[in-house]
Specification:
TATA-Binding Protein; 2 domains; single chain; three-stranded antiparallel sheet; alpha/beta; Alpha-D-Glucose-1,6-Bisphosphate, Chain A, domain 3
Length: 257
């Protein structure tokens, strides 16, 4: 029921479910809408691969923060964005909404096209395009699961998240770290990114990045890999790099195991 979904929704991928739902009705309604998913570097690599390679929906990565996701999502007919913490929504451009509602009322179109357009129109009416409406997000997921005949367990089994680990390292000055490519590549201090790349190559399905906190003198570390042990080890080694090259203070990061 709704209460159970409210508890587990943040652990599952709302981006996948909503974008797959809209993408399914787009060709049926013959609307040729440009659909895209917008995310941050914290989105799990497994879900990114599924959306791009299986669903064939473009994925765009932006800097952390709802304002960045919202701005990028506005560039498309339909922009789906949810941060890893669950904050997000779906944006329909005014032109896309007009096309959808015209199709619903067009008596010359086939029943299949009109029905598909109705589903999209109902989706627009249900989703609150103002970010942060968790109740609206929950209701759209309830509706999609019900219509598709999916259980929460089936939703959760569509793909498996890669094991990951987030750590933070205290530094004297967080501004020593600067990044590009939506926070995924460190430009300063010199040599940090090059050594990070060498570490990442040692583990399967791995990636890692570092970014300065926006509020305190710490550097946040994210790592993922094929196993939890490898993700933990990679995160620890990256933390040690940050400590050594970015002016770490206090105790040196200790291994997790």
């Amino acid at each position: 029921g709704a209460l159970f979904i409210a508890e587990v929704a943040l652990e599952l991928d709302i981006r996948y479910m909503v974008s797959e739902w809209i993408s399914a009705f787009n060709p049926q309604a013959d609307l040729d809408l440009q659909i895209a998913v917008v995310q941050t570097a914290y989105a799990n690599g497994s879900s990114t691969r599924y959306i791009e390679e299986v669903m064939k929906v473009p994925v765009h990565c932006v800097s952390t923060g709802v304002k960045h996701l919202h701005h990028k999502a506005q560039e498309f007919d339909v922009g789906v964005y949810f941060e890893a913490n669950g904050h997000g929504t779906v944006l329909f451009s005014k032109e896309a909404e007009k096309k959808i509602r015209r199709m619903v009322l067009d008596e010359k179109q086939s029943k299949e096209k009109c029905d598909a357009a109705k589903m999209l129109a109902n989706t627009i009416d249900l989703i609150n395009q103002t970010v942060g409406d968790a109740i609206s997000d929950m209701l759209i997921i309830e509706a999609i699961l019900s219509i598709k005949g999916f259980t929460v367990q089936q939703w959760n089994s569509i793909y498996t998240d890669l094991p990951n680990r987030q750590l933070k390292v205290k530094v004297a000055n967080r501004q020593v770290i600067s990044t590009v490519n939506a926070g995924r590549r460190a430009v300063t201090p010199p040599g940090l990114q090059e050594q990070l790349d060498i570490l990442v190559k040692k583990y399967k399905l791995s990636r890692a990045f570092v970014r300065p906190s926006g509020t305190e003198d710490v550097v946040r570390v994210y790592a993922e890999a094929d196993t939890q042990s490898n993700a933990d080890t990679l995160a620890h080694k990256v933390s040690c790099l940050v400590y050594e090259l970015a002016g770490g203070v206090g105790e040196k990061p200790k291994p997790l195991h």
